[in-house]
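Next comes the chain:
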Amino acid sequence: MAKLSIIRFLFFIIVFSAQQTLAETINLVAEVFPPQTNRDGTGQQFDVARAIFEPLGYTVKVNVYPYRRVIHLLENKQADIAIGIAKVDNKKLLFSKQPHDSDNIVAIFPKDSKINWQGVSTLLGKRLLFIAGLSEGLSLDLDLSAHQVSEVNTRVQALKKLLIGRDDILIDCECGFFLDEVSSYRSQFLTKHIGFFKIYAAFANNEQGLKLKRIWQRDYPNFIKTDAAREIYQKWGLMREYAIIQKVLAQKVLTKKVLTQ
């Protein structure tokens, strides 16, 4: 009888430990965007997420997918957190208040095209191309109903479409133009700066997502000011990006102080 009780007790411990491990695992997803988010689960943004959650007892499980797939998984609560997300009006997601990254928005078009660039107004009447899932986040308050807009899954597909004249201009974040996957096409295109956008962490719209969002919003603003955060950016050669996010966050703090005076 005593032996049976011991077996039952050990079984309970095993089951309880498994449940605890499962409960403490965060499913984090992102688009591949080296060196911030690499295909193998390494990268600056993944390191920051681990630095915030792992000291609290969580295990951060990372998977990378195309951007549209990332959003789909989060909307359907098949992931807990996504990083590198453009903030849009999507009631299926919860967004962090603070951006965790920022980048320039650029217009990209072939050098041999007949486009006479005269600033953002040049976009009017053009066939605009976006990476799938990014059109709303990068649209710069354009009335896209006045444009012919299409989407593709990869940047290589986008550049090929531009080269054969299927579309006129790709709207993308600047760092996307410097990914290794498009290196063989880069010399054939011009880029023009047209704006600036902020990148956020997004969370599943459920109890778990809300809890993780609260942790992120509590701990991220403090962590990003630490030497540990600086070392992560330095490790990945992203000190320019580190300076930008510090400036963006400082501006938000200054604005809040002014509004409360």
About this structure: The beta strands are 25-30, 59-64, 81-86, 93-95, 101-110, 127-131, 148-152, 169-173, 189-204. The domain at 103-197 is CATH 3.40.190.10 (D-Maltodextrin-Binding Protein; domain 2). The first strand starts at residue 25 and ends at 30.
